[in-house]
Design brief:
Length: 201
């Protein structure tokens, strides 16, 4: 029974979403570094808002029958280390197009699972803007911004040019993006956004 389950797991699912991504434009070689960076930042926003870690990401891979592409914690770490902004050279590998598609599906699957929290955070952000108050004055947003900024500074190469305000802006932009990726067709939106932003990044 286990062997049957494993053989089924080798075919990506949900197949309709995988087919969607195959039929969308593929990035060119020049765009890859920027795509790896953007994809890692979306995951960073998701994990710092929700508190999920690698276990949840690996479980999502199992649920989506994508564990052949993201089989374990080390493989996941290596895929994320492919972001050129990350500290340390050890374990960094080239991210191929199938691995990128798998990470897109995993990200959107998890975003959908946490859609209620994402909606609440974005709603709070809109409310704070209407009241002309700083986002960090709301506890949920303040905790998220702090976690995002601290984790970014911990994991990424030191960049003297990036200020706290810029990191905060990045965190809030990623939060709004997550709302779009958590809805129907989120995987298509994320894939196209990765390609679009890689040209402008």
């Amino acid at each position: 029974m286990l062997k049957v389950m494993h053989s089924a797991a080798n075919s990506p699912a949900p197949s309709s979403q995988w087919e969607d991504l195959i039929n969308l434009p593929a990035p060119n070689s020049v765009q890859w570094d920027n795509i790896k960076t953007q994809l890692d930042l979306v995951l960073l926003a998701l994990e710092t808002l929700t508190g999920i870690g690698s276990e949840a990401m690996l479980q999502a891979a199992v649920n989506l029958n994508l564990e052949s592409r993201v089989p374990d914690r080390v493989a996941l770490w290596r895929l994320r280390q492919s972001n050129p902004l990350r500290k340390g050279q050890g374990g960094r590998k080239k991210l191929d197009v199938e691995e990128a598609r798998a990470l897109v599906l995993i990200t959107c699957y998890l975003a959908k699972q946490h859609q209620e929290l994402i909606r609440r955070a974005v709603g709070l952000l809109e409310q704070m803007a209407e009241d002309n108050r700083e986002p960090h004055q709301a506890a949920l947003l303040g905790d998220y911004i702090d976690a995002f900024c601290n984790t970014y500074q911990d994991r990424m190469e030191e960049d003297a040019t990036i200020s706290t305000d810029e990191l905060t802006h990045l965190a809030l932009k990623m939060l709004i993006d997550l709302l779009f990726y958590s809805g129907p067709g989120g995987h298509r939106r994320l894939w196209l956004a990765l390609i679009d932003r890689s040209i402008k990044f």
